[in-house]
Structure formats: structure tokens, C-alpha cells
Amino acid sequence: MKTAAVIVAAGRSSRMHSEIPKQYLSLSGKPVLCYSVEAFQKAGADRIVVVVSPGEIEHCRTGVLAPFGLADVVMTEGGKERHDSVYQGLLKAEGCDYVWIHDGARPLVTEEILRRTLAAAVEGGACVAAMPVKDTIKEADGAGFVAGTPDRSRLWAVQTPQTFAYDTIRAAHEARLRDNEGGAPVTDDGMLVERYLRLPVKLVEGSYRNLKITTEEDLILAEALLRGRN
């Protein structure tokens, strides 16, 4: 069984108020992206594909990963939208049986989470890391008033990695490419499997610590969590 990790590191830092992309920001003396690459190395991924913004391959390899001994990865440029970037990464993962798809801005993913999601993908073909929501969620109408209150016991906040049999997730992405209308916006890869293949996607427990670096506050919290882990 061959495994691949597609790490999407093509995002920008619009909510970080930083000129440096969030995946390259320093976290306890190391770029955010490095933590994800290290996690997949420890989990035994046969191939690690890092997807970066156009024109950033050399900078990412030599300026971000190489100083920490992590340059031995496959790299490719992403596309306009996240799903375009994931698809480019999937093309580089061809020949593998199972693939993790992970946000490069989630540095606190653990080897345990990676193994849990891989096991679920082997069993059922498709899964996403997620955690039950802690807060009551309100649905809003177009005017900003409450339109409904979903049952919190049935709501999960989705994370990455999202893990699939390779042929399954590639088929879902290519079905979307053939869809001229595109449908509603796609915010995660599990949606593609649900929408285009009509296959069940398993929710697998991730961790409340498996946060995504989106704002300055997230970076501060990640620093604290890393200190606790160490």
C-alpha cells in the first residue's frame, strides 16, 4: 500500500495582515509549513507533495524547507482556487493507493490523527478529520436575522487531513472539471466526493488542537500549544 500526502501551501495571509504567506510565518523558530511536512514524514508517507503559489517553488524549497532538512519533497504550482491546487497535487501523487490532503497552515496535526484517518480511508474510501462543535450555531437569513438553530449534537467542524482512496478523490475532482456550471462553491474535498460521486464520507476525530493558522491570534495560540506539547 503506497501513501501520498498533498500539502496545500498556496494560500495568502489576507487576515493575518502580513506580507508573508501564513504557511511561511515563523512558529517557535520554524516556518509553519515545516511542521506538516515533518508530521507526514513521521507517519511514513511514501510521497509528500507540496503545492505552492505560482513562482514560489524555488523559494519554498531552498528558503523554507531546505534549512530544516525537508527539501526532499515533490513540489508543484497550484491554481486559482483551492480545489485547482489540490488537483495539481493529486496529479503528482499518481501511482499511490491512498492520499492525505492537508492544509499547510495546520501545523499541529499529529501522527496519531494521520494514522486514524488513513485507517478510515482504507476501510471506507473517504474520510475527513473533524471535531464536534462546541458552540451553538445559528443560521442567518439575508437580512442578518436568525433563520434557524441546527441541532448542535449533529454538527462537526471539519479539519484536515481529508483522506481518500486515490482513485476516488481523483475521480471526484475530474468530475468537477467536467461540470461546466461548477455548482455551489467547494470548500473542502469531502464535498466533491459527496456531490459528484454520491459516496459516504466518514467523520474521524481530529483534535481541537489541530487548528488552522488564519489570524494573528491563531499564531499566538499555536505557539502556546507547541510549548505545552514540548
What order do the helices and strands come in, and which of them pair?
Elements: E1 3-9, E2 26-27, E3 30-31, H1 32-42, E4 47-52, H2 57-65, E5 74-77, H3 82-92, E6 98-103, H4 111-124, E7 126-132, E8 139-140, E9 146-148, E10 156-165, H5 166-178, H6 189-197, E11 202-205, H7 216-229
Parallel strand pairs: 1-4, 1-6, 4-5, 7-11
Antiparallel strand pairs: 2-3, 6-10, 7-10, 8-9
Helix pairs in contact: 3-5, 5-6
CA-based shape: globular
The count of strands amounts to 11
Strand order of the largest sheet: 5-4-1-6-10-7-11
Low-confidence stretches: none
Number of helices: 7
What is the CA–CA distance across the termini?
32 Å
Oligomerization state: single chain
Largest sheet: 7 strands, mixed
Overall radius of gyration: 17 Å
Main structural class: alpha/beta
- What string gives the helices and strands in order? EEEHEHEHEHEEEEHHEH
Average pLDDT across residues?
94
Question: What proportion of the residues form beta strands (DSSP E)?
Answer: 15-25%
Helicity, in percent? Answer: 25-40%
